[in-house]
Amino acid sequence: MAKDSRKLTWIVGEGGLLGSALRSQIGNHSESYCHWHPTIPLSWNESEKIQIQFKRIILDFKSQISTFPEWTILWAAGAGVIGSSPDALKKETETFSIFLTELENILGQDLAQGHFFLGSSAGGIWGGSEELPITEGLPPCPISEYGKQKLNQEKLLIELATSYPKFKTMIGRISNLYGTSQNLDKPQGLLSQICRSTLFRVPLTVFVPLETVRDYIFNEDCAQLIYRALKQQSSTENQSMITTKIFASEEPTSIRIILKHLYRLTKREPMIICPNQAMTHQQPAELSFISKTLVDSYRCKPLIEGLKLILEFQESLLQRGELPYPEVNLNR
């Protein structure tokens, strides 16, 4: 049987904010990637079940790779946020460890034809950094359990990759991801939360000062940058098998500026409540990033354009009665 010239590609967590954008990106480049999707759902909260499910799915994946010259796994799974409990965050690391163990046990030397991308957190990894802007050369400095567990996940992947010298891996440290498909039930996604509160004209409690500065990257832009970076890493000119890269808009913005953008777009003053004792022990005042690895000329959309897209999407949901009413105290 003749080999398909494309890369067999599996996105773990393709229903999430990053995963859905990666899925669209793969669809836009169907001449280079063949999207593979497992046929059974995953029981993320049950370790024993998910280990069995991982084994079955990876065996199915292995049965397909012989007809492709290369394969790619994009790990975009994980529901943890800064405010998640330590136990929940450790559970995510344990799940990732189970996945990598089964991947090695089943694929073995077939890892040599593979490419693995791990979605990590730039803010979590470098939360305690005092040097700005942050680049890939700075040492990790997590100040939250979230950041510590993201770093632990990175170490697990690096440990596997060093055992298989031809196994290409990329760790993507991503800044604050946002987009129209943000899960509004999670206590994160400041931009989507503020947009929704503005549309409903209800207050939103923000537990950090309005001068807090972050880098916000639209999920579709991030997926495009990931696709381009993986392509660069796969080129014959690039010899690095283990790469860590920042994915950011490189346009840091304060919450106060975001509120001004929203007023400009809606002609409504966003209703924000800032407690006197803002919770800043896990939230640095400023985080900004510049990537020096696999540098790309691609320009992310300006933040005001991304906000406009979110507002338009949420307005359409509101008109259909499908936009969930916000809780007053959703934060970050």
Summary keywords:
two-stranded parallel sheet; alpha/beta; Rossmann fold; UDP-galactose 4-epimerase, domain 1; six-stranded parallel beta sheet; 332 residues
Strand-helix topology:
Blueprint: E1 7-12, H1 17-28, E2 33-36, H2 47-65, E3 70-75, H3 86-107, E4 114-121, H4 122-125, H5 145-163, E5 168-174, E6 176-178, H6 190-200, E7 204-205, E8 213-214, E9 216-218, H7 219-234, E10 242-247, E11 253-254, H8 255-266, E12 272-273, H9 303-319
Parallel strand pairs: 1-2, 1-3, 3-4, 4-5, 5-10, 6-9, 7-12
Antiparallel strand pairs: 8-11
Rg from Cα: 20 Å
Helix-strand pattern:
EHEHEHEHHEEHEEEHEEHEH
- Secondary structure tally, helices: 9
CATH topology of the largest domain: Rossmann fold
Please describe the biggest sheet, giving its number of strands, its sense, and whether it closes into a barrel: 6 strands, parallel
* Count of individual beta strands: 12
**Under the CATH scheme, which class of the largest domain?**
Alpha Beta
Whole-number count of domains: 2
Task: Tell me the fraction of residues in β-strands, as a range.
Answer: 15-25%
Which architecture of the largest domain would the CATH scheme give at its second level? 3-Layer(aba) Sandwich
* Outline type: globular
* Distance between the amino and carboxyl termini: 52 Å
Q: What is the typical, i.e. mean, pLDDT?
A: 93
